[in-house]
Design brief:
This protein is α+β, with helices and mostly antiparallel strands. It has one domain. It is 36% helix and 24% strand. It has a three-stranded antiparallel beta sheet with strand order 1-2-3, with no helix packed on it. A hairpin with a 2-residue loop joins strand 2 and strand 3. The protein is globular and about 35 Å long. The protein starts with 9 loop residues before the first helix and ends with a helix.
Length: 96
Amino acid sequence: MLLNKDNVTLEDYLETYKTRITQESEIIFVQDFLFPLLGKKHIKYVVPQYSFIDSEGRARRIDFGILYDGQKIALEVNGETYHAEGIIPMRISMIT
């Protein structure tokens, strides 16, 4: 279990959660953003595919939950094509 370790390498983290972090965009997110931000001492508090019950009582899952010092932060990572050029302006124009 990662919480019992003082330092967790990027390789240890990805190996531990290899069945939960399967999309390339999520691996890149961990490598390029989460690990450089949190480092070896704090990456252990990030739980991929975190399950929770929402305020309406429905079971949900988010890409990453950060659970630290009694606080929770939810992170949802979309695939690299989700915000592809042209998609957001098209959706905004459809709403207005």
